[in-house]
User: What shape does this take?
Amino acid sequence: MVDYFIVGQGLAGSCLAHKLHKENKSYKIIDIVSNSASFVSSGMYNPVVLKRFTPVWNAEPEIEKLYQVFREFEDLLKVKLVYNSDLYRIFANEDEVKTWKKKSERNENLKPFLDTQIYNSINPYIKADFGMGKVFKSGKIFVRELLREFRKFLLKNNNLIDDIFDFSFLKKDNGFYNYKGIKALKIVFCDGYALKYNPYFSYLPMEGVKGETMVIHANGLELTDIVKSKVFIMPMEKDYYYVGATYHYREINDEISEEGQNELITNLNKFLKIDYKIIKKFAGIRPTVVDRRPLLGEHPEYENMFILNGLGSRGVMLAPTMANELYEFMENSKELLSEVNIKRFN
Ligand SMILES: Cc1cc2nc3c(=O)[nH]c(=O)nc-3n(C[C@H](O)[C@H](O)[C@H](O)COP(=O)(O)OP(=O)(O)OC[C@H]3O[C@@H](n4cnc5c(N)ncnc54)[C@H](O)[C@@H]3O)c2cc1C
Assistant: This one.
C-alpha cells in the first residue's frame, strides 16, 4: 500500500513526486518515455509576455518557487539544472521602444523584470536596428537532464514503473485504488496532452498547441544570453543553441514538419547574421487549456482521484508551484485558487 500513485513523469509528475519524497510520503509513479512536452521543452523561464510586454500571471512567486525546487533537485540528483541568464528582446520598431520605456519606468508589476535602459545589439552577429530591452529573472532549466536523472533516482528507489498505464486495470477496492496489485490511497494524473484519452478527465477542455524547436551549431557566435525576436535563440554550451518555438493550433501532432522548421529558420535568419548548422529538430504538444490556466483538483465523482495538468507553454515556471498547491490541497485541505481549480468547468 502506498500513499500516492502518479501517472506521468513529465515536469508535473516529477515536481509532485519530488514534493512527496520531501514530505516522506510513499508513492509509485508510472511513465513511458515519449515525445512528451517536457522532453522536447526548451526549458526557458521568463516572467514577461514578450509580445505585448505584460507580466506573466503569478510571475514573482512562481520564479521564487522555481529556484527553490529546481535547486533542491540539483542537490538530490547531483547535477546542474538551473542556468540564470538575461533575456534580450529585439525591438521591431520605434513604437515598441516607446512602450517598453513607458512600462519599465511606470508599471509597478513590470519594474522588477524590465530594465529601463535600451541596449544596442549585445553581439556582433545579432541584428537589432531599433535596439534591445533586457528582461531580468529569466533563464533556463535543463529539463531533459532533470527527467533523465530523476528517472534513474526513481528506478533505483523502486518508485517507478516503466510501462504504459492501462486504464482497464484500475479498480477501486474498499477506499483505495488498485492497479495490478499496487494499492494506493490516492491517484494523481499528470499525463499531459494524453489527458485527451483519459476516461476520467477527458471532459476537461484541453486544446493542445503544437510546438517545434531545433538545436543549431553556430561556430564563433559566442552568445551568452537569450535573445528573443519572433523566435528565440538560447545558449546551451560550446556554441550550440536552442531555437524556438512555433505555435500551431491546427493539426495537433508531435511530428517534425517542413512548415514548422521553415518558420523557425525564416524568423531566425532575420536577426542572426552568422552561418549555422541545424543539429537536431524537435516537435511536441503543449497541454494547453482553453482559458490558459492549469488544471488542478479532485474528480467530481471519484474521491481521491486528482489531476495536475494544463501547464501549457509555461511548464517550467508553473510545475513547482502547482505541484505544491495540489499537495497542500490533497494533504491539508488548503483551498485551490479558483483560476486553476477544475471546478470551474463542472
Ligand atoms: C516545443 C515545445 C517547447 C516548449 N518550451 C518550453 C519552454 O521553453 N519553457 C516552458 O516553461 N515550457 C515549455 N514548453 C511547455 C512545457 O513543456 C509543458 O508545459 C510541460 O512540459 C508539461 O508537462 P506535463 O508533465 O504536464 O506533461 P508532459 O511533459 O506531456 O508529461 C506527461 C507524461 O505522462 C506520460 N504519460 C501520459 N499518458 C501515459 C500513460 N497512459 N502511461 C504512461 N505514461 C503516460 C507521458 O509519456 C509523459 O512522460 C514547451 C513545449 C513544447 C511542445
